[in-house]
Amino acid sequence: MITFDPTFEQDALRQRIETFITQQIIPFEKDPRNTAHGPTEELRIELNALARDAGLFTPQVPEALGGMGLDHVSMAIAFEACGLSPLGPIAMHCAAPDEGNMNLLEKVATEAQKERWLKPFVAGEFRSCFSMTEPWGAGADPSELKTTARYDGDGFAVNGVKWLITGAKGAGFTIIFCDVEAQGDKPGGPTMLISGMDEDGIVLSRQIDTLDSSFAGGHWELRFEDLHIPAENVLGEIGEGFRYVQVRLAPARLTHCMRWLGGAVRAQGIALDYARRREAFGKPIGRHGEIGAMLAENEMELQQCRLMVWWACALLDKGAQGRHESSMVKTVVAEALFRVADRCVQVLGGMGVTGDTVVEQIFRETRAFRIYDGPSEVHKWAISRRIMKV
User: Fold this and answer.
1) What domain range includes position 158?
2) Exposed/middle/buried for 334, CB within 10 Å: 0-12, 13-18, 19+?
3) Do residue 170 and residue 285 come from a single domain?
4) Residue 108 lies in a domain
5) What spatial distance separates the first Cα and last Cα of the chain, rounded to whole Å?
């Protein structure tokens, strides 16, 4: 039976994280190193040290690799709490794209690859990025993949253009989604390859200005120009890239929901506080019907989102693959959290469109969330095909 009552241990963890985020991380939100393109590497390292000292580093990773070894429901509770600040996931080393890449490597990488890439990555020695999205190719439809890899000596030569690659600058490595060209009896097809980011053949073309500003390293367009990748850096099997994309994206959609749920909870708290203190027409604005209704709608949608996330996580903990469930949850939660953030801006009025509170940033972040990891329309199309069985 699925229960929605947190255990004593889960509630205690939530309180620990909320206290840590409130007392130690939120004060850094106005730090000049927290830029329009995300926190700098210097700030990331400082925040990581605080989370490590608090015993709250990499909650999603198995204990054998140095993490907290949380199950999915416990992760949902922990990630919501850390999402109270846009810097919380960065501090606890569970932000995108790193969290998704850790999950993928833990499930697919060879032992040698785990030693070379995953273990120092989990320890916070470097960040990562995931090179899938293309300006005129793979994105919501990965089958439009245009980046290619041809057999070359002891490995592959990769060519192509990727964009909106989160955290590319300053990352220690990238996982590249590309199409390997078959050669004779050598297999081909969609494949994932691992490369250090300091290799010749990787060109960071430009940093892209985006709505969001919470990801370390920002978002980049990059080019691969005959990038050589040795054969031992094939992640999994050649031709199995589509399967591995789902291994990575299904749980990653849910962890996005968890983190941004925390942000929406923070926005609602700020709006509630403002509605209690700000007076207009003879009483606090929260006691006017229109404002009170918006705050009530927020409270209902936040709880609905929380229950949907926990439901999907409980299924994962029971061994389900979660692909279709995560698609439904991501769509519902992304749309609902945007409505919540939008109402919070409206309640705050003029203050809501300024940087005087974090609500303005949370609004921008949740708007982008409706597109990241698949736009709502693509998920609805996939869900309709499944229920129509076509």
Assistant:
1) 128-239
2) buried
3) no
4) no
5) 31
pLDDT digit string (tens) for the chain, length 390 residues? 566 789 999 999 999 999 999 999 999 999 999 999 999 999 999 999 999 999 999 999 999 999 999 999 999 999 999 999 999 999 999 999 999 999 999 999 999 999 999 999 999 999 999 999 999 988 888 889 999 999 999 999 999 999 999 999 999 999 999 999 999 999 999 999 999 999 999 999 999 999 999 999 999 999 999 999 999 999 999 999 999 988 888 888 999 999 999 999 999 999 999 999 999 999 999 999 999 999 999 999 999 999 999 999 999 888 877 678 899 999 999 999 999 999 999 999 999 999 999 999 999 999 999 999 889 999 999 899 989 986
Residue closest to 57 by CA, chosen among 15, 29, 99, 28: 99
107 is a domain residue: no
Q: What are phi and psi of 73, to 5 degrees?
A: -65, -40
Report the DSSP beta bridge partners of residue 219. 166, 208
List Cα–Cα distances, 30 to 33, 266, 355, in angstroms.
8, 16, 10
CA 249/CA 382 separation, integer angstroms = 14
List the CATH number of the domain containing 175.
2.40.110.10
What does residue 85 show for φ and ψ, rounded to 5 degrees? Answer: -125, 140
| Coil/strand/helix, residue 161 | strand
- Do 219 and 302 belong to one domain? no
Residues 261 and 191 in one domain: no
Nearest Cα neighbor of 359 from 367, 348, 368 is 348
Task: Let me know if 209 is exposed, middle or buried by CB neighbors in 10 A (0-12, 13-18, 19+).
Answer: exposed
